[in-house]
Design a protein that fits this description.
The structure holds 2 protein chains of 2 kinds.
Chain A: E1 2-8, H1 14-38, H2 43-55, H3 58-83, H4 91-109, H5 115-144, H6 148-168, H7 201-220, H8 222-232, H9 234-239, H10 244-271, H11 277-280, H12 284-294, H13 299-323, H14 328-349, E2 350-356
Antiparallel strand pairs in A: 1-2
Helix pairs in contact in A: 1-2, 1-14, 2-3, 2-13, 3-7, 3-8, 3-10, 3-12, 3-13, 4-5, 4-6, 4-10, 4-12, 5-6, 5-10, 7-8, 7-10, 7-13, 8-10, 12-13, 12-14, 13-14
Chain B: H1 2-31, H2 39-57, H3 60-84, H4 89-108, E1 123-124, H5 134-138, E2 140-141, H6 143-161, H7 163-173, H8 175-180, H9 185-211, H10 223-233, H11 238-258, H12 265-284
Antiparallel strand pairs in B: 1-2
Classes of the chains: A mainly alpha, B mainly alpha.
Amino acid sequence: MLKIKTTDRYDITPLRSFMTNILSLLAALVVISIIFLIAGVNPLFAISEIFSGSFGTFYGIKETITKAIPLILIGTGLTLAFRAKFWNIGAEGQMLMGAIFATWTGLNFGGALPSYIIVPLIFLAGFIGGGLWGIIPAILKIKYSINEVISTLMLNYICAEFLMMLIVGPWKGKTRFGFPGTDNLPDSAILGLIPGSRIHYATLILAIICAIVLSVIIYKTRFGYEVRVVGENPDAGRYAGINFLKTSLILMAISGGLAGFAGVGELAGIHHYLGYPASISSGYGFTAIIVAWLAKLNPLYAVFSGIFFAGILVGGDAIQISLGLPAATVQIVNGTLLIFLIMGDYFLNHKITLKFSNK
Amino acid sequence: MEDIIISTLQRAMVAGTPLLLATTGEVICERSGILNLGVEGVMSMGAVVAFIVTMTTGQPWLGVLAALASGMMFSIIHAFASVTLQANQVVSGLAMTMLGLGLSGMLGKPYVGKPLLIKMEDWVIPYLSDIPYLGKILFSQGPFFYIAIFLALAAWFLLERTRLGIQIRSTGENPKATETQGVNVFKLKYLSVIIGGGFSALAGAHLSISYSKSWIEGMTAGRGWIAIALTIFALWNPARAIWAAFLFGGIFVVQYLLQPLGISPNFLAMLPYIATLLILLLISLKDPKKLNAPAMLGEPYKRSER
């Protein structure tokens, strides 16, 4: 008889952790292939199309980096929140709130101010908007023990409707010919692009700086230590006198603020005006959850996993066109990857041995 | 005026039905200690499967059964990840939502915008439906309404009055002690997750083949998440879930009632989500000990070595 024996593993090396991730991704690819087969698409062709569409051409690489910008920003912010086991699912709303604050700032002050003042100002406004929207669930969780998964999600819906209210109502632009949306931001507030691409480099640089700063915060500061204690051993944290409210407020202000940055980037770098919520963010807040998870909650790794998932988004768009697959395909790929990543953790944390016995 | 009130309440019952089904399922699941955040995804799967099967076979009940089966099978993924592999239940549930929304979007793509011409007949209860006011509101509804209430009461009976129910509840409270009683904790958790998934899929079936009679991506519109909040509001009690769900059905319907008054439709669309936060705020003012939450909810259970 075959017996499966599992024991805890304590020797988790970075290499083993990395290899587990790779194997999990490969296992997920097998399942995704089966789904493609059932959908009547040659999986090898589809998967190679995804990667050649995103990393195989110059245009693809440029688009991948463009989409990586919000994913890196939000993903790094989520690594901080998730470390404290604060399940912030509301990056989508925090991003929109950041864009709303930035729009207000840009439309009201942009005309009179030069670029080097207004651009930092709209980023600051976006950080404040996203951060404020982020600390609401922190207060609700610590003060009123309201589950943050539900509150952040509800705030997503509320923010999207609030944005719609603004752009069909008081903020509706005169230049939109009756369609929902604000007027364009003044030219001084528009972010520069790398020529021949849609890469708004200011936000890209900001994203990488944020990842570096956040990894210093997490690994080198007392606050970072407190965040880890809150997540891993809350009882010990309480005993050590960690102020949960303060810690949660700060970490959610940062997590939401970074999502707000992402919103500013999409607004001032890509669209130039505030339009439909789904056009500002096509689900970046959710994809970033997987970005953070694949990065093992390390902000620096989130830069790379952000680029990887941006590639999947771009490749997903490519196969929609070339293979006629629906937009939902990307969600299937993402969901499958995420579930295999967390399943892989079991094999990272446990040693599994097969034993043959004659009994 | 009278007519408006009656038809509003009638529609509140219809809108509350999927919430009740999904909440009941989540109560059973969470009582066993497993948090399932995949409700939205499973609901969406149920909606699309019910719609496709009903449309192609012309048999709505076949559609309902297919949805039920799909929801139960789909939930096995969450059970395997969270019970067998002790994975993080929050993330596993989120992955289930993504996967469910994605798969249903892919399956349903050819059916978007096609109207369903097959109608499920209302069940008009003889005599009771003649009662003034109440008869129209409670006793001449579509079949899902009665099924949802029956299942909620049955779930209450199961959890509170049967041996299996006690075992499920004690699994959520103290799995270790339950296991020493000779109960197979893993099996019960699997069972609860799978039943819960079936309920969520039924909720989806109601949405696509009875409520809106069409399929469109994202038609679940956060109802799965609201059901998770209602589970807390119902204090993990399926009988309480009945009025909680219909109260929320009312909030969904009241939007349409207020729209002619010139209030922004986008503001009205926020109401169910704001109300969800408000009821959670309300419930948090209660003594946490009386909240009745399963003690080991969301905690992975490690089977002791034997």
